[in-house]
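Thread title: Can someone regenerate the structure for this chain?

I was given the following input by a collaborator and told the matching structure tokens would be attached. They weren't. Posting the sequence so someone can regenerate them.
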Amino acid sequence: MRYLVVSDVHSNFPALQSVLMDAPDHDEVLCLGDLVGYGPNPNECVDRVRDLALTCIAGNHDWGAIGQADLSVFNRDARRALIWTQNQMAPSVRSFLGGLEPRLDMEGPLLLSHGSPRDPIWEYMVDVGTATANFRRFDFQIGLVGHSHVPTIFAMPEPNARARILSADLDEPLDLAGRRLILNPGSVGQPRDSDPRASYAMLDTDAMTWTFRRVEYPVEITQERMRAAGLPVRLINRLSMGR
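Best answer:
Regenerated them for you:
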């Protein structure tokens, strides 16, 4: 199977559209949560992905938008954006988000979670200690996560070892065969690695390869829509900087 892997779209419809146009041929889309929050087009983003061959899990902003997470745990700007999102969502979008699971074991080697396998909604997978603990607690070959908005690879070299971070070049397939890995495709709608281009990945479970990809999108269109909606200025400005 060839999967298009996306995460953290965050209601950024121009970014999502650019990714879908840029992506090579694939059999299915894997979405690792946070379709909504921050951005100006929650209904459009959810409606667009529902038309695809899709496997999707929930993220913390998805839960916040449907009232399943206490908004007081979010920072001020995220909370303002979620309150705005709650007032904009169509009933069908709310129903779709409410039906998403926070973690999903797929047939074969894949485990999907937004944050981490052990805390799929909230835990950030950003250091080797956290990665090591998750490798040791769960029996998976390939774990797919989002939440941090940063493209990342963690590898577990052997069962009782400590995880380590790997690097991979853009557009260069990484060989997954025989490895235990946790992979993060980065964020479609709000990258935070100082590259404002939409980030995603391709996973080929037949060839056992993972490929990071980036694509430019019309950031100014998303920003103008956010201004028109009265969304927080900090959220608007950070899209230009990718952080």
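The mean pLDDT is 96.
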